[in-house]
Amino acid sequence: MSPVDTTHTPLDASLEHQRAELATIIRRNTQEDGSYATAIDALVLSRHSQSHNFAPVLAQPALCIMAQGRKEVRLADELFDYDPLNYLVVSVSMPLSGRVVDVSPEAPILALRLDIDPAEITALIADAGPLGVPARPTGRGLYVEKLDQPMLDAVLRLARLLDTPKDIAMLAPLIRREILYRLLRSPQGHRLYEIAIANSQSHRISQAIKWLNGHFEQPLRIDDLAREVNLSVSTLHHRFKAMTAMSPLQYQKQLRLQEARRLMLAEGLDASAAGYRVGYESPSQFSREYSRLFGAPPLRDLARLRLSV
């Protein structure tokens, strides 16, 4: 499937000035390639100066801003492309893969990620009252939206606090709340809004995702999961796939394989032990499905990962 369309037109002068300042802040706080937690809760900065192939991860809800460069994110067989003109929002936990493109040591990717706690969205809606967010059919739990002046201004003010640490405790929570408010009021804000409203179908799908994240090593019985979140089996399948581009079983498989990879890399488990730990009974099936997701059998994939480090 071709990448989601984004309009690659130049930023206007004021937006370009703010983008350049944000890029400078990120560059100053990321001396080498990698991702860096900051003194601001939930704010992560990253720099990459080399192109990377798709690397599957379990992404958590977040706002992703690109100050310099471009990134492609893959959800199942769909591509989402974002850059300094367009931000990316992940509204529910889901297995994704991504790559940075068109980079060099002279022009690295400079990016910012602000993790989103769904409980904060719920609290904001409760405090603000009706926000006039229109109800729409469930869409993907991942979307790209055009970056506007108010959003970039709020994100830049948050990043500037890294230069005045004494102000972080008082001002960062206020600015983060403003950013969440602007996300809710954006053209696709209904995707976050629906997930935060108790008893909506989107909220129930987010609860199903949360349950799978905590029980992925157990055998999955769709009837039981549907009862857990108070949906019919057919509605669960339809809404789950609409949000994640995969079925609950496909989602569980990706969770299992990613956790197995982590166990082998971080804890030194061999492939058989890692497969059993995450719920596989057949080592051959585990190896086959692992190769399909990561592009190589476990031993070869781990060797490649260790070499890249």
TrEMBL record:
SMART domains, per the entry: HTH_ARAC (SM00342)
Q: Which PROSITE patterns match?
A: HTH_ARAC_FAMILY_2
Q: Which residues form the HTH araC/xylS-type domain?
A: 206-304
| Source taxon at top rank | Bacteria
InterPro entries linked: Homeodomain-like_sf, HTH_AraC, Tscrpt_reg_HTH_AraC_N
Instruction: List the keywords (alphabetical).
Output: Transcription, Transcription regulation
| A Gene Ontology molecular function term of the record | sequence-specific DNA binding
Looking up PANTHER family in the UniProt record yields: ARAC-FAMILY TRANSCRIPTIONAL REGULATOR (PTHR43436), TRANSCRIPTIONAL REGULATORY PROTEIN (PTHR43436:SF1)
> How is this protein named in the record?
AraC family transcriptional regulator
| Species for this entry | Pseudomonas kielensis
